[in-house]
Design a protein that fits this description.
By secondary structure, this protein is an alpha/beta fold. It has nine helices and seven strands. This is S-adenosylmethionine-diacylgycerolhomoserine-N-methyltransferase.
Amino acid sequence: MSAAAHAARMDAIYAGQRHIYDVTRKYYLLGRDRLIDDLAPPPGGGVVEVGCGTGRNLILAAQRWPQARCLGFDISSAMLATARAKVARAGLDARIALSRGDATDWSPRALFGIEAADAIFMSYTLSMIPDWRGAIEAACDGLAPGGALHIVDFGQQERLPPGFRHALFAWLARFEVEPRADLPRMLEEAAAARGLSLAFTSLYRGYAWRAVLRRPA
């Protein structure tokens, strides 16, 4: 799927959903707040969210890490409209910058005018990006020395009842969300190719997977 086609599809799905997205997703997008607590950017550092959606996570990151500059982008113009409104209501326009971009083809310099990011995070985005492997590679390449890429997304429900897994995956498919079974292997390959360290954790009996890829200082 081309970037333009993916953008149009996301706009179509979330044109209405964006207005209730945060209320409904808080019950099953688990691990997001733990990820934000772990970002730990240096003073004055840049934090980038890939696929920022409604801006919910960026606002929390800006509040949790007031010394950082928070930046986010999304391929969906509809989601960005909601994000900009939420950021303005939170009074964080001066500390959060938003842009439209493709997760598989971006750089901190091209979108935000910075050389690299000290922390990049992807919260439940890889399961929605057709070229999710390319998105991981692009994010890894945007890291500054000592910087880290933080990921949380759906796992394979490996220690939960099979019926639960079947029902969840069927429901997610309605929104074109596909948990990535090959995520651990792809992360290992991306880390090895770039000399990054990798920490991988299964959360909530496999409901979610959490990973941190870190570039040496």
